[in-house]
Amino acid sequence: MPNADNRKFFYGANFEFSINAKRWDATRFTSEIRPIIGWHLKPWDVIINPIVDTAYDGLGNLEFVPASRVAYNFASGWALAVEEYADYGLVSDLAPRREQAHQLYGVVDRGWKGWDIEAGVGFGLTKASDRVTLKLILARDLNKRSTAK
Description:
The chain is mostly beta strands. The chain is built from one helix and twelve strands, in the order E-E-E-E-E-E-E-E-E-E-E-E-H. The longest helix has 4 residues, at 142-145. It is globular and about 45 Å long.
């Protein structure tokens, strides 16, 4: 959505196409459709992503892997957030709770001069989850470079 940072309600979509190494995923080609629904409630942000994954093996095998984020944005440009990532299994046949993966992350992030950094640590909430996961995202927005001070 254009000017999403300046709107109270915003939405969008992200499409990911992956070519996977065998050590990472047994399926060579996969994709993710990530709807983005959010609210900037200054200084808070609430974002929901009802994500669907596919390995291109039929509609009955679509996986529901939603994510959500609640963040507090400080005047300094830093944000402190809680994020949850889940894997409920197949859309057509959701997994029982004991087989679902749920990760809860504590995250800090900051953007400046066209760069964004996000770091966090996640803890599994179910037996099917990874016990501890570290997250680090470094991104560069070339469109923001020319307007940075």
